[in-house]
Amino acid sequence: MADESLLVKILEEIKLMRNDISELKTDVSELKMDVSELKSGQQEDHQILKALEHKADVNKAEHDKMAMDISQIQGYQKNISESIDAIKEIIGRHEVDITVLKRRPV
Fold first, then answer.
1. Rounded to an integer, what distance in angstroms lies between the CA atom of residue 16 and that of residue 11?
2. Mean pLDDT across the stretch 84-97?
3. How far is residue 65's CA from residue 2's CA, in Å, rounded to a whole number?
4. Where along the sequence do coiled-coil regions lie (predicted)?
């Protein structure tokens, strides 16, 4: 009788262990799905980050080009200002010469 009681207890323990193992398998399966979802989200985040890095590089290149264009325009503006100043000098001298010539008797 004691052997049967022991055998019943062992069988009950085995049954409980099988239930526990089944629950563990379910938990592991759920964890695998969660990890898979996390990996998928991480890959998406990585792609977004790469796209943002590329956009930042493009923006920097455009900014550098604009800075170069502005420097070039400033150089042209300086040359134009110098040319206008030279023209003003020439015109001023011609005005003086014209005034002197007008005052001379013919």
1. 9
2. 86
3. 93
4. 7-34
